[in-house]
Design goal:
Blueprint (H helix, E strand, L loop, with lengths): L5 H5 L15 E5 L2 E5 L6 E4 L1 H9 L6 E5 L28 H5 L5 E6 L2 E2 L7 H5 L4 E4 L15 H15 L2 H22 L7 E5 L9 E3 L4 H8 L3 E2 L8 E3 L2 H7 L3 E5 L5 H8 L9 H4 L3 E4 L1 H4 L5 H12 L7
Helix pairs in contact: 5-6, 6-12, 7-12
Pfam families: Peripla_BP_2
Protein name: ABC transporter substrate-binding protein
Keywords: Signal
Length: about 325
């Protein structure tokens, strides 16, 4: 039997409508601007797997008239039977401005490089011109300006903002409280570790092309640190970045986090373990791989699942019964 909500949904098992009534208008911080809402969205859209998972976990699926960015990876979404199948995917790839406007939305939840991109013309500013309000994933704001250093508060800000926007602040406050408790439990277990293993996040790691990793401002890097590890690219002041294999080999990760998203885990591991230039890398030599779903390693209600998995992998002695 699947654990649909893990510890999170244990505190979210009450109906959204049971929360105390919320008054409007409300204002939320949306990257470096303030967005005002006079009432909850009526025709909301959401893009990308991590944000879709968040709205599923918060019980908001019926508030969204369309989702995008999940085609081919629906199997990774966790929800009660029938819920994922009931999501209306209005496009089978990341959307353009035209595709979004074709849904006649009044709100969109996405992020920079998580759907919002000037290259396709889909930006909060462009949507605003058509009367569409937005909320931008807080982690992704680093793509357009200098935000505060990433912390779990960056994730909690997303949940609090969604609570305000949709009138379920009591609901999201309970979710945040549950997540804080789980993070604190991990931190207590690894607080005094004497060695912090070198960890790499590796995406697009199934060919000799430059892979994607993460700098210190990405959620995956934060999870590594909280789990008692050290991101090998923590000196890069950005979130998700292209790196080269020579630098990976030089930095010699002891563990590699792999996102089992569009590319099967087995294909990625087969490449890593067959590439001669990586043969001396400790993580490859010892086959120390940590598979996470996309939602577990990017900002979502499942990020703490990812934290717990990394911590248990790199410090198993701290989690024995």
């Amino acid at each position: 039997m699947k654990r649909y909500g893990l510890a999170l949904l244990c505190v979210l098992s009450f109906e959204v409508g049971a929360a105390a009534a919320q008054t409007y208008p409300v204002e939320v911080q949306n990257c470096f601007e303030t967005e005002r809402f006079d009432g909850p969205p009526r025709r909301a859209l959401v893009n990308d797997t991590n944000m879709v998972q968040t709205i599923l976990d918060l019980g908001l699926a019926d508030r969204f008239v369309g989702v995008s960015g999940i085609a081919g990876v629906e199997r990774h979404l966790v929800a009660p039977p029938g819920v994922v199948a009931g999501l209306r995917q209005f496009i089978d790839r990341y959307p353009t401005l035209e595709a979004v406007l074709g849904q006649n939305p009044d709100f969109m939840f996405a992020g920079w490089n998580y759907g919002f991109t000037a290259a396709r013309g889909l930006t909060p500013a462009a949507l605003r011109e058509f009367g569409v309000k937005t909320y931008t994933l807080r982690e992704s704001c680093i793509r357009i300006g200098k935000r505060e250093p990433i912390s779990m508060e960056t994730l909690y800000a997303d949940l609090d903002a969604l609570g305000a926007i949709f009138g379920i602040r009591d609901h999201t406050a309970a979710a945040i409280s549950a997540l804080r408790a789980r993070v604190a439990a991990v931190e207590r277990k690894v607080r005094d570790v004497s060695e912090r293993p070198r960890v790499m996040y590796c995406d697009d790691c199934f060919t000799t092309n430059p892979p994607v990793s993460v700098g210190r401002e990405g959620m995956t890097s934060l999870l590594m640190r909280l789990a008692g590890g050290e991101n090998i690219f923590d000196d890069v002041p950005n979130s998700y970045i292209r790196v080269n294999w020579e630098e990976v080999a030089k930095r010699d990760p002891q563990w590699i986090v792999i996102s089992d998203h569009h590319i099967p885990l087995e294909k990625t591991i087969a490449h890593l373990t067959s590439d001669p230039q990586l043969s001396h890398v400790e993580a490859v030599r010892e086959r120390r791989f940590i598979p996470l779903t996309y939602a577990e390693q990017t900002p979502s209600t499942r990020s703490v699942d990812g934290l717990e998995k990394i911590a248990r992998a790199i410090h198993p002695e701290r989690f024995r019964p």
